[in-house]
C-alpha cells in the first residue's frame, strides 16, 4: 500500500489524555482524509493495544510505541487489528519524520466486485484509473468485463467474458435502420434487446458462475454502470453488499431514480428525440411528458426482460431500482454549463479519466502541429463512431471545406488512406487526443459530442464545433453551445456554406476561446482531484455500511413529484385565464 505522510503526530504520555483527543479528532480527520499517528510510552501498549483505542476510531488511528534508547528507537504500529514493529536508528527529533516514512497507510481492505456491462472503449477510460486507485488503497478488486478493449490492470483479478465481445461486435457490424435515430420506441426496443443479451452474457458465463457459487468468495461492495441492467442489481441482495454506480455517460433521470430521488429533474432525459431545450412553461410541460414516456418505455421495454433474468439466476425479481444504489459517481461537474440539484449521494467526478498519464505525440504529428503557422483544427468522431459510417453528404463537404482553410487539420481516421485528402490534412488511426488538445496551436475541436472529449476540450480551453449523432451527444453539445464555447450543426442537412461560416465564426470571434478558457479554470479549481473524490466517497460507503444516512427520506418526499407540480401549475393557469 502507498505511504501516507499526511497525518499529524500526538505525543501524549498517558491514555487518559490521548483517548478523549482521539474521539474529538477522528471526525475532522475523516473530512481531511488523514491518518492519525499517536506516539505512546511503553506502559500503554503491552499485550492488547485495542484495549486502549476507542472502538469507533480503530479504522483511522495508528498507535506508535516509543520504548527504545536514544540511538535505537523501536515503534509499534497498530492497524487493522495487527501490530507492526519498526526499528529506526537516529537521533532525537528526526525519529518522527523517518518513522512516518515507513509506516503504511491505514486503509481497511475490502473485497470489491466491479462489472462493466457496456463493452465500449470510452467507458473503460473512466473505469481504469478508478479501479487502479482502489487497488492502491489496499482493496481487493475483481473486474468482470469483455476480453478485448480493456487492458489488464495491475492488482485487479479479471474475469473475462468472451460473449460480451461477440454481443458488442454484432451491434457494431449490424445494418441498423435509420428509424433507430428518429423513433424512440424502435430505439428502446433495440436497446432493451441489446441490454438483455449483455446481462445474460454476464450472468450465464461459466467463470462468473463459478465465482458466484464459490462460498469462499466474499464481496463487500459492488460497482456497476447504473442503467437498465436491473438483474445485476440482485447481486446486492445476494452478497448483502451496497451498490455504487459509476456513470461514464453523465446524469439523467434514471440515475436520480436509482438513488431514491422521487422528484428527478425534467432537464435530464435519456433519449434526445422529441426533447425541447426551451425554458418556457410549455417547453417544460413537453419535457415532463417526454420523460413520462421514457418512464413507460423503461417498464414496458427494459424491465420485463431483466425480471426474467433475475428470476432465472437468483430466483426472485430484482429490486425495483428506486433507491437501489448507495452512491453514484457521475461524469459531470457543475462548472460545465449545467448546475444540477443533486441529492447528497450523487458525487460529481468529471475529469476522473484525466488522472491517467497522457500518451505522447509521435514525431510526425508533433512536427505537423509545431509548424502550423495559422493554427490547427482537430476533427474526431470518437472511439465508437467509425469514419466509414459517416454519410457521403457529410464527408464530401468536410473534405472540400478543409481544403480551402489556411489552418491545418488533424483528422482521426481509422483507415490508412482518405480519398481526395488535401495537403493540409493529417490523418491518423490513433490520435493522442489529450496531448493534441493541449498543444497551443490547436484552435478548434470538431467533435461528435462525446462526454470524455468535451471534458478534455474544456480542460485545455479549446472551443468546439459539434456534429452530434445519437444519445447524449445532442444534450452535451447543446449545453456547450449555451455556455458560449461551441456551435452545433445538423449532420443530416449540413452544407459547405454552413460549415465554412461556422468554422470561421468560432476561429475569428475571441469570445469562444475566452469562454472555453474560463470554463477550464472553473473545472480545474477543485478541493481534491475527481479521482481522489471518487475513491474517498467509495471508502465512505464502505466505512458506513452502505451509508443509508445519505439517502432521501422516502416517507417525507413521497408526494413531492415534478408531475404534480406541473399539473397544479396547469390547473392554476387554466383558472386564471
UniProtKB/TrEMBL annotation:
Sorted alphabetically, which InterPro entries does this protein's record hold?
UDP-glycosyltransferase (IPR050271), UDP_glucos_trans (IPR002213)
Q: Which UniProt keywords apply?
A: Glycosyltransferase, Membrane, Transferase, Transmembrane, Transmembrane helix
Q: Which GO terms describe its molecular function?
A: UDP-glycosyltransferase activity
Chain ranges passing through the membrane: 450-471
Fetch the SUPFAM superfamilies from UniProt.
Answer: UDP-Glycosyltransferase/glycogen phosphorylase (SSF53756)
Homology family? Belongs to the UDP-glycosyltransferase family.
Q: What is this protein called?
A: UDP-glycosyltransferases domain-containing protein
What does the record give as the organism's lineage?
Answer: Eukaryota, Metazoa, Ecdysozoa, Arthropoda, Hexapoda
The record's gene field reads Dwil\GK13418
